[in-house]
Amino acid sequence: MGYDLYVITDAGIGRGRSHAEQAGLAVEGGADVVQLRDKALAPRDLLAAARAVRAVTRAAGALFIVNDHLEVALSAGADGVHLGQGDLPVAAARAVVPSDFILGVSVGNAAEAVLAVESGADYVALSPTFSTGSKADAGPGRGLDTLRAVRAAVPVPLLAIGGIGPANVGEVVRAGADGVAVISAVVGQEDAAGAARRMKALIVAAKGGEVPC
Ligand SMILES: Cc1ncc(COP(=O)(O)OP(=O)(O)O)c(N)n1
Ligand SMILES: Cc1nc(C(=O)O)sc1CCOP(=O)(O)O
Ligand SMILES: [Mg+2]
């Protein structure tokens, strides 16, 4: 299964839709992966949201990743967890999860990417690739030269995240990203399914597939 279009749900940006509704629109538009990300929910409420997103993604055949919370990911039957540099160390997670459980890791440069992969990461995300208004503490964009350096450094799937939309997704893919992770470009749109469909078509086209109409 691929990582072309990776959509992250967001209670604030998601236009009043529940996480499961956002996930449903994302997979309707062709999202390959959905991540549940909510910094405010109590663990039991996050687990309830995760179970609802699990049902939607399972029905669509999409991967389901939970942000930050390994215990919620495991309890909800998610496919994996996404860990940042300040979260649970990837090696500690790898030691306790099933072998097919996906561990994604945020990285800011090639050295962090190499360390993440040596520690057990299944994919890495260059965070943030461009500046973003969707995460207050994301910091400045790392840029496409850093993306190329990470691409050259590690063999695992590489995502770009932060500030990516229809206008720049092509150059991101051509610089070496296997996929893009987005919030505002999909769940922030009124027609979120249509926005996902367009992003997916642009990614496929940039990889040399069918040109979108
Ligand atoms: C796909 C993906 N990439 C990066 C992040 C950011 O993770 P992190 O640095 O831990 O920040 P928070 O999202 O937890 O605020 C992500 N969630 N997903
Ligand atoms: C959740 C997240 N993590 C980031 C990082 O750089 O680690 S940027 C980000 C938000 C991405 O939102 P948008 O697609 O609207 O820019
Ligand atoms: Mg995190």
From TrEMBL:
Reactions performed catalytically: 4-methyl-5-(2-phosphooxyethyl)-thiazole + 4-amino-2-methyl-5-(diphosphooxymethyl)pyrimidine + H(+) = thiamine phosphate + diphosphate; 2-(2-carboxy-4-methylthiazol-5-yl)ethyl phosphate + 4-amino-2-methyl-5-(diphosphooxymethyl)pyrimidine + 2 H(+) = thiamine phosphate + CO2 + diphosphate; 2-[(2R,5Z)-2-carboxy-4-methylthiazol-5(2H)-ylidene]ethyl phosphate + 4-amino-2-methyl-5-(diphosphooxymethyl)pyrimidine + 2 H(+) = thiamine phosphate + CO2 + diphosphate
Please name the top-level EC class of this enzyme.
transferase
Q: Which cofactor does it need?
A: Mg(2+)
Lineage: superkingdom: Archaea
Q: Does the keyword Ubl conjugation apply?
A: no
Assigned keywords, A-Z: Magnesium, Metal-binding, Thiamine biosynthesis, Transferase
- In Swiss-Prot or TrEMBL terms, this protein is called Thiamine-phosphate synthase
Tell me the organism: Methanofollis liminatans DSM 4140
Gene name, Swiss-Prot/TrEMBL: thiE
